[in-house]
Amino acid sequence: MTGTQSDGSGGGDHEVVAAAPVTADDGPRTASEIRADLSGRTRQILEATREAPDPEAIAWEKAVVHECRYLMRLLSTRRRSEGEMRQRLAEREVPADIAHEVMARIIRADLVDDAAFAHEWVQQRRSLRALGDEALRRELSRRRVDAPLIDAALETGESDEEVRCRELVRSRIGVRDRERLRTERDGAHRRRLSRRLDALLTRKGYPGSLAVHVIAGELREASHDPES
Length: 228
Known about the structure:
Layout: E1 2-6, E2 13-17, H1 31-47, H2 55-75, H3 82-91, H4 96-108, H5 114-129, H6 133-142, H7 147-154, H8 161-171, H9 175-183, H10 188-204, H11 208-224
Antiparallel strand pairs: 1-2
């Protein structure tokens, strides 16, 4: 249906086209139509051909999860270095590809921090076992911590090795030792005690020159100071 309409200005007529009738397909769908459409799509999804699961991929993923759980059990007892955990996987003869993925997941989960591990190790071993820096360096190296991280850890906290060495020697000179040092004439007990203390400091990782210096000074003080 068409018609003409004047614009009232004498400039001519403009043709107006009537709107086409709206069909049922163009109008809003009813609830029943929507349900029917969803039902059809659901059938397509359910009837679609599915790929069979890959048994090798499933087995590989199970192995990765198994080893991740193993490492997390180790981490539940104390902090571990990355190298220490890699060594554990190697000792368990975990295949390289699985070990690589296991460590990648452990690292992504922020469960590895070698700097924090080295710092904690140094503080605890100094406090509990009075170890010297060389012994601590050997222990951390065996756990595959990088040398710069070891150096940084050894510089933290109480860094005066002589002070720690003296405290250790004093703790091992007992009351009876002091009495014998003050009263003996031949120096036999002093020599035995000196050898014992030197062996102790060697095991604890203190330098030989420092050990000789500290032992001589502490034995001299113990033999002259009844209150020490």
